[in-house]
Amino acid sequence: MKFYDRNKELEQLAEIRRRSFDNHSQMTVITGRRRIGKTKLIMKSCEDTSTVYLFVSRNNEATLCRQFSASVRQALDSYVPDGISSFVQLFEQIMVIGKTVSFNLVIDEFQEFFNINLSVFSGIQDVWDRYKDITHVNFIASGSVYTLMHRIFMDYKEPLYGRCDTIIQLRPFTTSVLEQILSDYYPQYANDDLLALFTITGGVPKYVELLVERGAFTVNDMIDRVMEENSIFLEEGTILLAQEFGKKYGNYFSILSAIASGRNTASEIAQAIGETNIGGMLMRLEEDYEIISKRRPVLSKERSQNVRYEISDNFLRFWFRYVTRNQNLLQMGLNDRLRDIVIADYPTYSGLVLERWFKQKLKEEGGYKEIGSWWNTTKGNKTDQQEVDVVAIPVDDDAPVLVAEVKRQGKNFKPEWFEEKVEHLRDKILHGCKIESRLFTLENMRMIN
């Protein structure tokens, strides 16, 4: 698949490289979840310039240094002494070369030094502080384990705190980029195919690429590729979460499983996993790992206890709904049976994701200062709940508030019920506001204004 998007990031990296080469060395940190395209972005930005690329695998430090020394010699055609067994020593040699040569230094999976030699970080700090103002090295550190990268560079207790000049966190593709990809590779796509791409991949570039390269452009073909034997999608969730959580994997996995099954309040989650003290874990999942998000009704106060939790990552939502629930089928090799379950359930599940599509679309198109849902429960009873799918508060106070119902198909829309909810919403929080009420369906996915 060809390279898509990231124009702002490429412009930013080009400007950083210019400052590095013309003035003095710059340190840039690029983070983002696994498969988000960090390495591709970095190497795209380094095209046609001298680049040293070092991938930090879990290996002996001396072994890595031998490999890295050879990479430096080859990339820069510069002398590096034999026998260097300390990365800090090698890093100093690289910075010395930067006194007379301008080049990019890319260290991928930088956080792996945690598992190799913790003293590397303080050593890099010392070398960097001594050489950065007299060298011309465009130093880019990249890592997939967000929590570790955050700790290394943003925890004031860590030696590299305050050293990086720029931090770039990569996000998934936007809805418009997903539209462009399908238009390029499968111009006849239906909106349901576009929704499936968003539902399954969440816009994560590598997942999109895997489907594109297999020619999976329709709903059924995408599900076939994901659920087939030896599909990387089947193990991806486990690898991703184990990488982030480490030894705490089990507790966090249970919480995410509970949320994925529809238990979205703190009390429901606690009851589902048999734990009473989960506040700290929920906070870490939201703030440190950024895997879940806390939702409140639109325009509610920050301290409102009317809170729901949801898994932010579309792929993980999909994975927990189908893969974790049906591990028994996968263990027995019944992938076709699981595929049939997904195909049968997909219209229901994708209808829920369609609401996320429209919220993201509105956010990308701009003009709104708050976008979310609204719900109100009488006496704590869900059966008495009034709920509105999409409420978008405009930046312009004179513009109408957008209130929308989301349905896969317009035939399922009941206008009279919706108008009752709109009036209820007007009475509760939108007194005197102009309201634009809309119905969003599959047909509106590509253009909603």
Structural class: alpha/beta
CATH class group of the largest domain: Mainly Alpha
CATH architecture of the largest domain: Orthogonal Bundle
- Uncertain parts: none
Number of helices: 19
What is the terminal-to-terminal distance? 30 Å
List keywords for this structure.
single chain, 449 residues, alpha/beta, Arc Repressor Mutant, subunit A, Trna Endonuclease, Chain: A, domain 1, four-stranded mixed β-sheet, 11 strands, 16% strand, globular
Kindly describe this structure.
With 449 residues, this protein is α/β, with parallel strands linked by helices. The protein contains 19 helices and eleven strands. Strand 9 and strand 10 form a beta hairpin. The protein starts with 6 loop residues before the first helix and ends in a 9-residue tail after the last strand. The mean pLDDT is 92.
Question: How are the secondary structure elements laid out?
Answer:
Blueprint (H helix, E strand, L loop, with lengths): L6 H16 L3 E6 L6 H8 L5 E5 L5 H16 L10 H11 L5 E6 L4 H4 L2 H13 L5 E7 L2 H9 L11 E4 L5 H11 L5 H11 L3 H9 L5 H9 L4 H14 L3 H12 L5 H8 L5 H10 L3 E4 L12 E4 L2 H9 L4 H5 L3 H31 L2 E11 L2 E14 L6 E6 L8 H14 L6 E6 L9
Helix pairs in contact: 1-2, 4-6, 9-16, 9-18, 11-18, 13-14
